[in-house]
Fold these 2 entries.
Entry 1:
Amino acid sequence: MKNLKIISTLLITFGVIVLINCTKDACDYDLGPNISATCTVCADPTFTKVGNGTSCQKTTSTPATFNGTLFNVTAGDSSTAYGWGGANVYITDTSLYTYTTPPTGNIMQDGNGNTVNPSYNFTGIWLGGTPSTGRLNKVGIWGAGIPNNQWIGFTHCIDVVAKKKVYVGMAGDNRFRFSVNGHPPYAVETNNSNTFNFTHWHIFEIELQPGKNIISMQGYNDGGAASFGAEIYDATLSQIQLWTTDAEIDSATIFSTKDMRNQTTQIGNINGWSCPNGLAVDFCTGDSIPVCTLIQNGGVVACP
């Protein structure tokens, strides 16, 4: 065995010891018949290892643009129409973005215009039909001063160690959309007033890359009653299927518009903070003024 110098970070994952930020001469060890040491570096030297050390990321920030008013947020309107169809679950594919609804009909479509059938429809605790049941009635927001015909919303940062699936639940009277890391196109954007946008709670499975991720969620009102709801669930699909109470949902919720009541909106296309396409409004730097962050993900290669 070579003389082991402690000049690197040891990270044990899946039975392999990964030595981070080292040179081949310093890392190429024979640690025994059942353990191997692998030296890797970021394929692009301007990137930094993130998560469990098997992926790399680069973040670049520039000033965000403030377009005007941030609106006070209260509970949204309630309706017997909200959530009467329960919750639909969709397994998304990034190559098929943007998911949307047509002007009429209770269907979701992918970016090619093909119908996307939900993988599951949940009723039970997800079912609306009264002014106090269904997720949109329970977590929806809006505000008396928010104008019609513009997007308003919030962002949420999530740091993950390895690739991870999370579930984004949304509904809107009249529209909703969300993006991941500001990358165009939107993962989901309903661009019409189809009532399907709020008669069902729509849950989308997405996969996050190791490191920093920013999910931007927005709602839009065409006029009349208004409510926008969004939540992010840190759970497996099998766990979600078993939920029967609000407490179970809340315990796995890492973001909810319900928690934004009595606060102010953050982002929007006319008011609030915004960034160019491809960059995300980033409130997670510890500063009260957000920045526009470009998030780039990359891989590792063997040490030279």
Entry 2:
Amino acid sequence: MPVGTGLLPFPVGTVGVPLAGVAWNRPRCRWCLLSSPPMTDITNPGPASPSTPISTAPDPVATASRAASDAPGFVVVTRTFYDAIAEDYAERFRDELVARPLERAVLTAYAELVGAGGRVADLGCGPGRSTGFLASRGLDISGLDLSESMLAIARRENPAIRFEQGSMLELDFADGSLAGVVSFYSSIHTPVDELPALFAEFHRVLAPGGHLLLAFQVGDEPRHYDQPWGHPVAIDFERRRPEQMAALLTAAGFAMLSRTVREPDPGLGESTPHAFLIARVPE
């Protein structure tokens, strides 16, 4: 999948308040701000789990330098980041859907629009939390992610669901073969100039009448995350405007069905609104 991993993009704490174990800086590279997963901002990640092996991930600066010379450099950065933090991330956000009834309501409504048994791909599925929830709502769903470490967790927690590694920008699905595509906070690491190609790929694999669910955090400024849980990696999370994303989806051939924006919940450590767009491929 292009970029993006997990149920949520990193939940982030209140703007201006440093969180334990996380260094907050301005973005150092614009190309690695594509799109990706959180339902929240990144809150205090807490100490690294004692059971988590010491990361051998490459130095983020060196990785970024090498990746910058490649066309899909942001993909390399995203995969490296989530491979390093997968176990800590999955543990910290284990109950994200449980704590967010509005997100569950959006996912449930989406499942009803697709219809029971509809073939759906959860792109940038991370540890598979949204994938598992949608499967429980009757969808024939599979998951795709860049990070093998995230996929290992998804397979462990959802043994009946198929998960594969891949890029959202180069999907291994036939034209018009899916009834639904879900990008639940997984486009937040995709550079804005790559979004038209990303949405065109979503449109390609959807059958006429197929539905897309796109979730992201609202805003104009990206957030930079450095060394979460002590891992030697860094990444940027892009915020978007609903009207901007809706215009790009329309340009890609989608018909907009719903635009939902909820306010941040301070009790959950959120500092930005969250948007949920549902679009459909015309028949």
